[in-house]
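User: Predict the structure for this protein chain, please.
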Amino acid sequence: MARVTVEDCVDKVPNRFELVLVAAHRARALTSGAAMTVDPDNDKNPVVALREIAERTVPADDLREGLIHSIQKNVEVDEPEEGAAPRMVQDRRPMLGRDDQSADNTVDIMTEEQLLRGMESMTPTEPSSNGNGGPGGNGRG
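Assistant: Here is the predicted structure, written as structure tokens:
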């Protein structure tokens, strides 16, 4: 589609004023980093937004709901009803924090000298990879 016209979009969003609002909202979303659903073809974000609406790659109803949500000042939150979830008895509630120290893990403390002695006593599991047959040797024994 080389050019996007209002006629390409008006069958998806019948009200032209609403089309302008929805396309502007989508263009702002694209500017904010939303993924484009059509090839940008070096077009600016408002044109890409109109092309997305015309090609139905972004549902107009979803754009309309996003626009309404972005304009709303007071969003109604559904609070759970009092009888919706049973309450736990006070003495059966789990205790949070570090009250039960029996479950704590103990950590072994090792000095630097102990670590070095342990590393020196370890033997390599594979021969040296430098190809000379051993440490400092030339492979002749």
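Residues 6-71 form a domain with the Eukaryotic RPB6 RNA polymerase subunit fold (CATH 3.90.940.10).
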